[in-house]
Amino acid sequence: MGGVTAACPDMMRQSDDDRRGAAGAGPVPVDPYAPPRAATGAGAALGAGALAWVLSTYFAEGLPYSLVHQVIAQQYFTDAGLSFAALGLTALLHAPWNAKFLWAPLVDRIGNAKSWLVGAQLVLSAALLVASLLASQLAIKPMAVLLVGMAVAAATNDIAIDTYYMRALAKPDQARFTGARVMAYRAALVAGNGGLVVLAGFAGWSVALGAGAALLFASAMLHRVYLAGDPPGEARGLPMRETVLSFFQRPGILLSVAFIVVFKAGDALMFAMNAPLLKDLGLQTAERGFYYGTLGTGASVAGSILGGVVAARGLARWLTPVAVVQSLAILLYAGLAAFRPSLPVIATVIITEQLVAGIGSSVFVVFILRLCDGPHKATHFSFGTAIMSLAVTGAGTASGFLLERVGFTGFFLLAFAASIPGVLLAPLVSREREAPRQPA
Fold it and tell me: Which of 58, 112, 52, 153 is nearest to 361 (CA)?
């Protein structure tokens, strides 16, 4: 699944309406779930008012992703004894994220985003209750079928939350809250791959998945009651063809799309097989939940905040160094596989790599946001994130077969090699996408 201070080029400019509104405005009480006011300039979701729902919605976006891809597909199936090849094939569960651009225009045009996200979270909660029953019976095939439905619902939840974010925030604030959204998303990964996996280690998988169902039901009710309805999308009534063409006719889009596909390719391979490696190194379910799910993902939350600071200092300046460090971090896992060190070293590697991953994710979200534009911006963001997930699906699907052929050390060296194209493209696209500075 599943996250600073720069976005679309015109996000950096404050409108005349914004300045006029700010000059004459007095102190206004802040409601944490105040109605979104995307078109009102200075009234557009500022401060703690926006922060509250940005945190709650993006936590609700990250948790389903964690439950589908980390908690069940990785940790539960690893405990159930699936082969490396079968574990790799669970990457096909990313297919709904690859294809979500197909129904993103419908979410942008039918009803409102709030209704979509509340409905998706209720569906996911119900599905997790069924999963908790299947877990007690080790019913692998029914669980796999259920995961496909959960993946579709989770991808729809992603579309709806991103659409709400785009509608509710004025353009400068879409950039300003990127660090918060990535942080909340990664905090959800801590709750899932950390808290729920640790719970599974002590109380069993049925209890852990039931707890996940309760969390998503509570999230749906919170947003049903307190989240304000969003205004109609700007794309409503516009031709679908225009939505697609306006994205793919942007200058330099082919280079940007290529970069989106390859930037996370190495990480995708590494993440697909890190749970089997940690199990092979002797970490049991509760230990994996604590060291990787809690400490590691906690480090990624810190990294997402740091990534926001980095992006604020200029995407063109920092995109290439971030890509290089992200690539080199993969070699740490190759070292774990080759030397099989003690637990403190394993924990240090996990924390370091996840810190770097958090930085990379925040910077990458800013890059994708810079591809958004005009009335189609919400669907454009879905296009960008769908393209991003292609590498995750392809690399993850092949990961198990590669691991069985070359072993853990060779596998993580291949993951490092897969990260190199992203490093090579980073300096090209960062210059292409850097927004021109506005005169004072």
Answer: 58
What does pTM read for this prediction?
A: 0.71
Buried/exposed 369-398: b ≥16 CB within 10 Å, e otherwise: bbbbeebbbbbbbbbbbbbbbbbbbbbbbb
The contacts of residue 117 (CB under 8 Å, 6+ apart) are 57, 60, 157, 160, 161, 164, 223
In angstroms, rounded to a whole number, what is the distance separating the alpha carbons of residues 97 and 386? Answer: 5
- For tokens 């940790």, what's the residue? 75
- How far is residue 430's CA from residue 136's CA, in Å, rounded to a whole number? 49
Cα(256)–Cα(8) distance, rounded to whole angstroms? Answer: 14
- The CATH T-level fold of domain 48-433 is Growth Hormone; Chain: A; (1.20.1250)
Write down the domain spans for the chain: 48-433
pLDDT, position 237: 57
Residue 92, classed as helix, strand or coil, is helix
Question: Two tokens at 102?
Answer: 């197909």
Report how far residue 79's alpha carbon sits from residue 239's, in angstroms, rounded to the nearest whole number: 48
- Supply the pLDDT for residue 20: 37
Cβ atoms of residues 270 and 330 within 8 Å = yes
Contact between 293 and 300 under an 8 Å Cβ cutoff? The reply is: no
Q: Which residues contact 375 (CB under 8 A, 6 or more apart)?
A: 233, 234, 235, 238
> For residue 222, what pLDDT band results from cuts at 50, 70 and 90?
very high
**Cα distance between residue 93 and residue 272, in whole Å:** 12
**CB-count burial class (<10 Å; 0-12, 13-18, 19+) for 202:** exposed
pLDDT tens per residue, range 175-215:
778 778 888 998 898 899 889 999 999 999 999 999 999 99
**Per-residue pLDDT tens over the stretch 294-310:** 898 889 889 988 887 88
